[in-house]
What does this fold into?
Amino acid sequence: MEINASEAAWAALMALAARPDATAIRPLFAADPNRFARFSHQAGDVLLDFSKTALSDEVLKALLALAEARDVVGFRARLFAGASVNATEGRAALHMALRAAPEDQFRAGTEDVMPEVLAVRARMEAFTRALHEGCILTAKGERFTDVLNIGIGGSDLGPAMVARALWTDKAPLHGHYLANVDGHAWTEMQARLDPTRTLVLVASKTFTTQETMANAGLAREWLSAALGEAGAAQHMAALSTNLAATSAFGIPPERVFGFRDWVGGRFSLWSAIGLSLALTLGWDAFARLLAGARVMDQHFRDAPLAQNLPVLLALVEVWHVNGLGYPSRAVLPYDERLARLPAHLQQLEMESLGKRVAVSGAALNRDSGPVVFGEPGTNAQHSFLQLLHQGTTPVPVDFILVARPDHTHADSHRKLLANGLAQAEALLMGKDEAAVTAEMRAAGVHEADIARLLSHRVFPGDRPSVTMLLPQLDAFTLGQLVALYEHKVAVLGALWGINPFDQWGVELGKQLANVILPELNAGAPQRPHDGSTAGLIGKLAALWPEGRA
Ligand code: F6P
It folds into this structure.
């Protein structure tokens, strides 16, 4: 019965998508002077304008009917109730508890998670304040100046993105992020830092991740060489769910900040994994980040679907991916401080939604998560936006604009905003043959050249985008924006019937790397491989003979 209702809703949506005018956006504006007002909604500080998409009233109604048929409301209730929404791992997904206020209630199953959340938060605050006030000092009795976060994936991208977005020259400590197991990254980092003044945070949910544990080992050797083993211990802390492993690594319990398995890696920046943010931006900024995310949590939990920003963003994505068959999406923040947001969203969205089977295990009969990529504007305009304007397949865009800058160069900021608005308008309106011809004639171009160049200079238009507008970028508004994307991902999981909280697809490569590692030591394959991999192992052994351990 339920399956039939969803399939009927999908069929109704696909019937609208099959209409010849399904991709047309310009006529929707022409027909409705109120389109901007009717197809944009505000939640907290975030204005979401989705009027520059081909969503008509009819399409939006069909999308909302799909959300109803897919029981998004029920899914949302189960998510907030701490039900086991991460079915393949038998866990809740309760990152909202991490930014909850003391009076809020969150349970994972029957367990009240708030006492532990608040206790860890209090320990993080106490540690942060003690460090800033000079009550916790280096092994040499001086103030720490730098924090090095060693982690990868969700234990790096979220904190690194926020640190980049909110850093000011008043920041109490300098933050650094080391992710890759590439020794070049470590060499470069080591050259930049003084071990006698650096606090090293080993950030790993599992505390088994190969890259992180290798880098943590290098960092511990580096600290020990400068400070001795006891001194090195004073310069380290761990952020993890795996208390046995942090203790085996030699980090004392008072330097371990824990969280629980119901926090997914890509949703973990609000947990102890965010300690680098508290240390480098200040506790108040971290608390504001959490408070901002809570605003979006409450909006997502309480707002009707038709005014619910995460739901609307997810429905727009379904229209683009499933209705119109657009396989990718670009994220263009017109704010240099958000330079790492596309990378964070790549993990958040592609690790969550890159699934080919439903929660039931059955193969999906429609597409799921698109490829997500992006760069800050205006830089992106001078690299890949050509393809977005004139390539063969439309690429929907998320434009992120910030109204008020935190600098005094108003002219630069006006130019930045003008470019963001212009790109979205150009994608939408395009430029037809008549306009191109008139423009070339006015410029005195010869008729033969006009004929030769005309099609190259035409922009098809009707290329969709959404715009998210923030009044300013600060911890509070950034918290709202990131939580908006998190909930969008959860809604898409419900709409597509997939589990957005697991990531089995990362396992095979990890297993094979463990097979290949000893083979690189030995200089030859020891197990069967495909011909290419075996050949490359042999070539590497020949090119780097000293690489054998
Ligand atoms: O390999 C992918 C992944 O498991 C991500 O989901 C996670 O964010 C990252 O690795 C790091 O994992 P951990 O925090 O356990 O080191």
User: Anything to note?
Assistant: DSSP finds 22 helices and 13 strands in the chain. The pocket of 6-O-phosphono-beta-D-fructofuranose is lined by residues 151-155, 204-206, 209, 212, 265-266, 351, 503, 506 (CB under 6 Å). The mean pLDDT is 97.
